[in-house]
Protein 1
Amino acid sequence: MLKIENIDKILAINSQDIEVHTFDQRPDYYEFTFEHHNIHSALFAAHMHRRPQWRGGKDYIMELFDGINGKPLVYQFSIDDLKDPFALLSYLKDAINKWDTVTNK
């Protein structure tokens, strides 16, 4: 089961392109709501699953909701993407860049 330490520190970081507004630790996933400073058309929500994609693995699934489409985009992440708050923000920024490419926003 994935556990993110010091998760509250991410709320204090507002000098990056990604700013997290809220987070919640659910039994099966972490939920983040956040915005990208250059994309004003959507408030994003990410569900980062707490159980590995494969038993004993280190790869996890994240569902990205954009507040526009009803169906989330699915991404894969690893523990290294969450090693510190800045790595998590960087991962979310990369996911938004891919979202931008896929949706042509």
Note: The chain has one domain: 7-103.
Protein 2
Amino acid sequence: MGKLCYAMDLTRNSYYLWLHDKNRKRQARKNLLSVRIKLVFMESAKTYEPVRIHKALQAENIRCSRQYASRIMAELKLRSVHKRAFRVTTNSAHEFPVAENILDKNFSLEAMNTVYAADMTYIPTRQGWLYLAVVNDL
């Protein structure tokens, strides 16, 4: 070891300090955990939260607390994404009169500006709801 330290222009003492440095080992473990957490997160299609990441690591015999996994995920800016559940907004079971279907799917009309079709939908955004209304001349 002495020749290697001499060639690298290091003292033996600095080599042994580096060898037994706990921060170096801790950083190496954190790097390995970061890579594994990122892989598990991507394999889950970005849906796993820290609790499930922790369970996946335990299943692979990788020791890590849930809080530490959460902290690493926060440092890597990994946030789980979930689709919103489908919500029915139309109430078809009502007692109100239903308009008569006078068009009866006959879309071949001779003149313009005689029959219109319209629809409206809601679009959720980060700033609130947007409302989209469309009117078509059939």
Note: The radius of gyration is 31 Å.
